[in-house]
Amino acid sequence: MAAIGSLATAGALIVAIIVFGLAASESRSESEKRAADAIRKTLVSAAQESQALRDIVRGGSPYVAAAAEIADEFGRRLGPAAASRDFWAHLGADKSMMISIATRGWNASPPTRKIERRMAELKRLRVLLRGKLVVLVHPIELLDSVVRDGFSPLIFYRVLTAAPELLMTGKRDERRVVALLNALTAGMQNSAIAVYVAGHQKLGRLLNEFIQKAASALADLEDEALLALARSRSKTPPRGATHTGRMLVLLGDLRSFLPKEAHQKLARISLSIKREITVQKRKRKRARPKPERRGARRK
Q1: Mean pLDDT in residue range 47-51
Q2: Among candidates 2, 61, 1, which has minimal Cα distance to 196?
Q3: Which of 181, 119, 180, 191 is nearest to 155 (CA)?
Q4: Angle, CA 257 vertex, CA 254 and CA 261 arms, to 5°
Q5: Residues 245-262, buried b or exposed e (16+ Cβ, 10 A)?
Q6: CA 220 – CA 139 distance, rounded (Å)
């Protein structure tokens, strides 16, 4: 009888171990599913925020609202009793006033606050990406640079101080300050949008395209593959590698995980981003004033 009791006890113990193992396995499976779903949520949110930012800045529309706010602020600084001579005396020449009205007007513009909120959320999502999923971190950081450089009150400060007379073509004889302020608004809008189109529009579009396609391709992976990417370490990029260089290294790591067509498309977009950055660097270099050579005769 004692032997039978021992066998029963041993059998019960084995069953308990099996049940515990199954429960633990099921618990791990549920935990991994939740972890994969959390990663997908981050990827989808990053794509949504990037697209929302793209929609806000499309065509340079924030410049339209900001220019109106800046002109209104200029009018308030001049005061209700200002004459046209006061307008011309301060426009462009009063540098401290120009930076002040550009900053205050830009910050008062509703699209500016929307841009800041979207970019802040993208940067929050960026820190949640781990392992080889940091392939999305680099375009987000590049997008942050585009926003800081391209959507800034300094754009308007440069427009107002570089050649203010070009903003007001044909308005020198205008005596009504309201008409002058309206003309200034239109001039700033056109000039700022031209700066955006020439220097930031294409790069912003390419970065958003990469984020959309990469987030979608990664979110479509099975849980096991997605978690493996999040937990793995990527190859060390070359010393001094740029964001685009790191993106290409990471894409090499992702080759075996992503569909061939999606991987090739992302590689092409990465190279287009790299080329556009190079083009913009050359433009900025050409635009810099050349230092005067020593011994050169002054005219």
Answers
A1: 96
A2: 61
A3: 191
A4: 85
A5: ebbbbbbebbeebbeeeb
A6: 20
For 131-151, the pLDDT digits (tens) are 999 999 999 999 999 998 888
Side-chain-side CA neighbours of 217 within 13 Å: the count stands at: 24
pLDDT range class, residue 24, cuts 50, 70, 90: very low
Q: What is the pLDDT of residue 21?
A: 47
User: Is the pLDDT at 22 greater than 50, yes or no?
Assistant: no
Backbone torsion region of residue 60, taken as left when φ is above 0, otherwise alpha when ψ lies between -120 and 50, otherwise beta: left
**Mean pLDDT in residue range 249-254:** 91
Q: What's at 268, amino acid-wise? A: R
pLDDT at residue 170 in the model:
84
Q: How far apart are CA 202 and CA 207, in angstroms?
A: 9
Place of tokens 């979608």: 216
Other beta carbons less than 10 A from residue 185's beta carbon: 21
* Separation CA 292–CA 295 (nearest Å): 9
- pLDDT the model gives residue 289: 61
**Above 60 in pLDDT, residue 266?**
yes
Supply the pTM of this predicted model.
Answer: 0.81
